[in-house]
Amino acid sequence: MRVNVDITQEQYAAFREFARSYNVSVSDILSSFVADLSGVRSNGSDERLFAREYFQRTDLSWMYRKGRSK
Prior knowledge:
By secondary structure, the chain is an all-alpha fold.
């Protein structure tokens, strides 16, 4: 499945360079993070925990809490 993500060219360039420094694709990094955040085919229990903790620290977590709208 494909998902479109809205980011700036500057963000993409920096992310692409980060991925290249680990010799992986941008797609692989995002797929791995989604797996950990969703808990489906994740990289392990610590990774699931850290992905959720990361998300809970973002603005999105606070703006879109369950039962609340933007």
